[in-house]
Give the backbone structure.
Amino acid sequence: MTQIDLYESIVRRIADLSEESLQQLSQHIAFLKWQEEQWREWDDDELRFDLDEDSAGPLTAPASQPSRWVFDLIEQFDQATVTATQSSQGMEVRVAPAVCGLEQRLSIWQHPPTAGAAVVQYQVDVPMGVNRLRFRAKVGIRDGSLIAESPDNYLAFRFYVNGMRLWSATKNSVAWDDVSVDLPSLAGQPVTIQLVTDGLGDARWNWAVWGTPLLIGE
């Protein structure tokens, strides 16, 4: 099917929709446009895998770029499970725009509970052809939080794969920090991904967010 045929098919289907469905479609299109804008904030050099540093000889552009597989954790949020390691009191987990350091991104909000940690878990089937896998995201604390006024109040972010912690960081500043984690070869395997936030005993102002979280494979 050509692009023109696809457009015509979509238009025919839209013409048969009810007013309520048209409103839902408009909202979904707005979300897709927003999502594409978020993706463009990662430039291609940030999303691609670099050539091996120890490669011999001059660097030359490959004849064809490898295909990229992307698992968008925000797009798949409805399939995730949300739990607390202790009580869920005070926990808030949802998808919404978030502003950190005056920069807005579509994000997973993950305010930890008053005690213990918040866990967002995904079950991911990595395709057979994916030989290299990376997790990319930005972590932040939303503007308006007063966490920085308490020097001893830190928030922990953690990233787990199949129960193993591959990355963690603590912060108490309202700004975005980059996260880039190279994963082991998981081609053709079911994988458990977990995003974890922990107030470390003090959940005040722990307005934690994961901005534009992606699994990227080649």
Notes: The chain has three helices and eleven strands. Helices lie at 3-15, 19-40, 44-47.
